[in-house]
Design brief:
The complex is a heterodimer of chains A (111) and B (109). Chain A is mainly beta. Chain A has no helices and eleven strands. Chain A is globular, with a radius of gyration of 13 Å. Helix content of chain B is 0%, strand content 59%. In chain B, the strands form two sheets. In chain B, strands 2, 4, 5, 6, 9, 10 and 11 form a seven-stranded mixed sheet that branches. Chain B is globular and about 35 Å long. The chains are: A mainly beta (111), B mainly beta (109). The A-B interface holds A 8, 32, 34, 36, 38, 41-46, 49, 51, 86, 88, 92, 94-101, 103-104 and B 4, 31, 33, 40-45, 48, 50, 55-56, 58, 90, 92, 94-103.
Chain lengths: 111, 109
């Protein structure tokens, strides 16, 4: 079993839809939870960062962490074609020295 | 002003050759990383360096040798390149939150 599981998709939605992206994990030592966005032929860029459990909101993006279920989510409201990218969840329990990434979910938002 | 830069962006070479990739960050971070992203987009950590010291070596073959001359630089040298080394290599810096370079696309023929 992989430490971090993420459905690779692809996920295709119409513009304006609410998108839900999810990851599950097995390592209870993870305390730092991140979402990165990666456009084609670019490096990943940090979208959201959460420490331990809870919710965090930033504009159209909301990150949720449920440590009891070992489940994290990213919600994108009012999705735009510019949101089309690969979304990678990432987790760490070592203070940043060994971050484990999910496989990434490819998202397509159709105009 | 570029935060994390890598050179070269593209590298095409023959099997058996030796090549280097350079990375520099101007964010003042103590920790730098090398990641490998394969054709299926899976991003896997290779090395972590903190203040020029190796912290994590994720069972990477000895043919890969990172070197950190100072906190702002982390270079990657690869000996005797193999077909399976073809991938995109990303440098990053930071800690819990990381900033990635643009990547180096390596193709071994």
């Amino acid at each position: 079993q992989k430490e971090v599981e993420q459905d690779p998709g692809p996920l295709s939605v119409p513009e304006g839809a609410i998108v839900s992206l999810n990851c599950t994990y097995s390592n209870s030592a993870f305390q730092y939870f991140m979402w990165y966005r990666q456009y084609s032929r670019k490096g990943p860029e940090l979208l959201m960062y959460t420490y331990s459990s809870g919710n965090k909101e930033d504009g159209r993006f909301t990150a949720q962490v449920d440590k009891s279920s070992k489940y994290i989510s990213l919600f994108i409201r009012d999705s735009q074609p510019s949101d089309s990218a690969t979304y990678l969840c990432a987790m760490d329990g070592t203070g940043g020295f060994k971050t484990i990434f999910g496989a990434g979910t490819r998202l397509f938002v159709k105009a | 002003d570029t935060a994390v830069s890598q050179t070269p962006k593209y590298l095409v070479t023959q099997m058996g050759n030796d090549k280097s990739i350079k990375c520099e960050q101007n964010l003042g971070h103590d920790t730098m990383y090398w990641y490998k992203q394969d054709s299926k987009k899976f991003l896997k950590i290779m090395f972590s360096y903190n203040n020029k010291e190796l912290i994590i070596n994720e069972t990477v073959p000895n043919r890969f040798s990172p070197k950190s001359p100072d906190k702002a630089h982390l270079n990657l040298h690869i000996n005797s390149l193999e077909l399976g080394d073809s991938a995109v290599y990303f440098c990053a810096s930071g800690q819990e939150t990381q900033y990635f370079g643009p990547g180096t696309r390596l193709l071994v023929l």
